Amino acid sequence: MRKMQKSIVEGKGIFVGLEDSKRSWKVCVRCQGMIVHEASMPAEFAVLRQYLRSRYPDCEIRVMYEAGFGGFWLHDALMAEGIACVVTPPNKVTQEKMNKVKTDRVDARRLARNLESGDYAACHVPDQERREDRQISRTSQQIQGMIVATKNRIRRFLEFHGLDKELPPGSWEPARYHALRAMSLSYPLRGRGRG
Q: What is the CA radius of gyration of the chain?
């Protein structure tokens, strides 16, 4: 079977749909309108690279995967190896109307078919510096949101127990933190079992 596959793909373009998850990757390889191989492998770039290089050494390889939790590092790694890669938004992937089944294997097949037919939308992949800037900004916003949510919980707790006079509406100035630290709470509100 391997010899027959080699004769089918040798020197031709192959289209690889990759469905990624945290622990394993499913791949579907298409060439000339047919599936020539499917595989499951650990979610490690070295394993994927070895698979592609050993099975398809003389082929022009193109890979497509959906943007998701893993970001764009896989795209960068593939491109650095000279392997063309398309990252597609999950909500733009064309699906067969009849097929409602969703598994990683089915998704890998769908990605490979769409890549081969050219029926896909590609994400803009920003450079690494811009991605890092966005990540820092996003993380900072998330932390700021958690701080605001925590302050609101504290305020509601105090309001519920009629202790909010120590914390009037408005921004939290340093004096407010000091007032909260000095606030006298009854034994049950301090938390049982705490020194």
A: 27
* 40: CB partners within 8 A, 6+ apart: 24, 25, 26, 27
Looking at this protein, which amino acid is placed at residue 191? G
E strands, the chain, are 13-20, 24-31, 34-42, 60-66, 84-88
| pLDDT greater than 50 at residue 195 | no
Query: Sheet containing 24-31: which strands, arranged edge to edge?
Result: 34-42, 24-31, 13-20, 60-66, 84-88
Report if pTM > 0.85.
no
CA distances (Å), origin 108, targets 18, 131, 173, 175: 5, 26, 54, 58
Report whether CATH 2.60.200.30 matches the domain 2-117: no
Q: Which two tokens stand for residue 66?
A: 């959906």
Q: How far apart are alpha carbons 69 and 20 in whole angstroms?
A: 9
Enter the tokens of residue 44: 């490690």
What distances in angstroms separate CA 110 from CA 93, 126, 158, 174, one per listed residue?
8, 25, 55, 57
Residue 141 β-bridge partners? none
Provide the pairing of β-strand 84-88 with 13-20: unpaired
77-90: pLDDT as tens digits: 999 999 999 999 88
What DSSP state is assigned to residue 166?
Answer: G
